[in-house]
Amino acid sequence: MISLDTNILVRLLVEDDEDQAATARDLLRRSIEAGEPCLVTVVAICELQWVLKRLYKVSREDRASAIEDLLLDDRYLIEESVTVGAAVVRFRNGKADLADYLIGLKSRSLGAEETATFDRALRGEDGFRVL
Fold first, then answer.
1. pLDDT tier at 84 (50, 70, 90 boundaries)?
2. In terms of DSSP bridges, do strands 76-78 and 128-130 run parallel, antiparallel, or are they unpaired?
3. For residues 24 and 11, is the Cβ–Cβ distance under 8 A?
4. Going by DSSP bridges, is the β-strand pair 115-117/76-78 parallel, antiparallel, or unpaired?
5. 88 inside domain
6. What is the pLDDT of residue 92?
7. In b/e form, how buried is each residue of 45-79, taking b as 16+ CB within 10 angstroms?
8. Same structural domain for residues 52 and 104?
């Protein structure tokens, strides 16, 4: 199995560099033909969301949809897929960044009662205490 870096995911989704997009599609095709999905880590998901927001000005809704599409696509094995899915739901309905929701959910799964933060976008969010 191979893992995909954020720049490969961006090429697959945005296709802003045709040569790199073709190379990424070929890599994905070969991996699937070999019977192996491509691993996408939580860190790559966070970076992908940030790149789509900052560099490509993709809307919050479209970023959430793009990540949900990855979760539903059997060509990819998403690390912590249940946690990522739950974080996307909170991201879609909340005001904070996807990474914040992932931090909170992962922290809770490891036994934390709440996540302390200075991020005011998380005020009133379950599982967070804004200082």
1. very high
2. unpaired
3. yes
4. unpaired
5. no
6. 95
7. bbbbbebbbeeeebebeebbebbeebbeeeebebe
8. no
